[in-house]
Amino acid sequence: MLNYGEEAFISCGATLDLSDVIFGQYRAITAKDDRCLSELSDNIFTRYLTLVGAAYALKRVGKKNCAMCFFGDGAASEGDFHAALNFAATMQCPVIFCRNNSFAISTPALEQYKGDGIASRSGNDVWAVYNSDDSSAYRSKKEVETWMRYDNPITSFHRRLHNKGWWNDEKEAKYRTDIRKEILKSFSKAEKMHKPSLTELFSDVYDKPT
């Protein structure tokens, strides 16, 4: 499954403390940190109320932390999302709702909301975030090519780093070489791992299997 448009969310993790809580969604893995990731959800985010409950718990015990969640534009049409917003606002919970890549699988945000979407910042801009389907069925090839060229978060961030003098071709070449070695090393390690036992299917499902 492609995850174009998700790359910029790595900057969200950079704003968090290691004791903050993340409620992820399967394509928001760029913000994942093993020390603060609470759980990953399926493509329709179903953890809004759990999220604000966790945030409220942090507030009750006096911790100066927050809970953050990631979800798709389409998931914002779920009833739980609105209930969670109300609870978070009423109880003044330290919670952050994150996500906006302008599409809900096949439905553009402009066709889903009366307003201008669910976020006030572009999810394709790393700086703005910080301070399995075939998309050709509903996006024209020209639209995708235009996005890749002008609004791709990696492309725009790369261009800005170069313009600021913080990055150059030499650093780029070394970085790509180092990352390739790291990826191949991880592949090699993963291929040698044994498959889990079938009994693992029930791990963390029931308290006491019967």
From TrEMBL:
The lineage of its organism: Eukaryota, Fungi, Fungi incertae sedis, Mucoromycota, Glomeromycotina. Its EC number is 1.2.4.4. Keywords: Oxidoreductase, Thiamine pyrophosphate. Gene3D superfamilies: 3.40.50.970. It holds the Pfam family E1_dh. This is 2-oxoisovalerate dehydrogenase subunit alpha. SUPFAM superfamilies: Thiamin diphosphate-binding fold (THDP-binding) (SSF52518). Its cofactor is thiamine diphosphate. Residues 46-121, 131-196 form the Dehydrogenase E1 component domain. It catalyses: N(6)-[(R)-lipoyl]-L-lysyl-[protein] + 3-methyl-2-oxobutanoate + H(+) = N(6)-[(R)-S(8)-2-methylpropanoyldihydrolipoyl]-L-lysyl-[protein] + CO2. GO terms for biological process: branched-chain amino acid catabolic process. InterPro entries: Alpha-ketoacid_DH_E1_comp, DH_E1, THDP-binding. The branched-chain alpha-keto dehydrogenase complex catalyzes the overall conversion of alpha-keto acids to acyl-CoA and CO(2). It contains multiple copies of three enzymatic components: branched-chain alpha-keto acid decarboxylase (E1), lipoamide acyltransferase (E2) and lipoamide dehydrogenase (E3). It comes from Paraglomus brasilianum. GO terms for molecular function: branched-chain 2-oxo acid dehydrogenase activity. It comes from the Eukaryota. Belongs to the BCKDHA family. Signal peptide: none annotated.
